[in-house]
């Protein structure tokens, strides 16, 4: 949606939709992302972030075979997202998209932006209802959106149900190992901000920025300067304002489809039992994101009521189910599937054991 600010009262028509001036006067918040065969999960993710006040979606699709690109074209034509098909041709789809997004008009028009994947859901904590509430609560240039890894909640099979309701079991908020439990993405100021271009986890700086953590606390100048740092400090209550729910597995069947698809930024990295073990934490129930569910469902219902959207989504679901059956007809894949089903959860170590494990990894990488 490409709406510009305008003085006065009333409404304007944009893409055959009515946009209130209350929204027009709010900050333009952009999500940019890449997708491949994510059709069954896409509407919930878009609707959730619309409910949080995201105004623009810049979505790059990559060689989809499940109809995700058709669904995105339908939403694009309705003015709900901006869809850009791209062909990676052996290159990293995510890096290609980042390069293109940096020059896209939606980026130059945005007040704030974040690059997140469609298995990552921003979880604003009370009393915030919209991203604007958090943005205006401080004078930050960037907010750390720290991952909270959610496991498969012992869901073996794909179900056409909301991700945020199906998968409620997660890693503890303070988890000393593995380090990826403290990885983060960034919500950052674009217009008049101190950043020069987007990155996968954090934008590239042109000057010192005012970074705040997920509890609204200012971070150090050293953190701002450390452009390669993508691990948040393990402090007390690191996500009192906001966290990023990361549903990187979903059900075991969904994981098998993800394994075949590959990763958007590291196509050569194996998605195997080791990947599963580092992410399948079902230790603590976290229902906090469900406070946004009613508002998100209202947006989802509206999107589904648009011409051809429900049909396009259903085609994606049918293709997803077909992909599961094809993959699991391979004996090697079926064997892995059954072994993953035996691994009910990963258990984070205590801090003493975590220290030993980290020292081992550091020693091995330095030799």
TrEMBL record:
Major place of residence: membrane
Pfam families in UniProt: Glyco_tranf_2_4
Membrane topology of this protein: Single-pass membrane protein
Signal peptide residue numbers: none
UniProt subcellular location: Membrane
Keywords attached to this entry: Membrane, Transmembrane, Transmembrane helix
Protein name: Glycosyltransferase family 2 protein
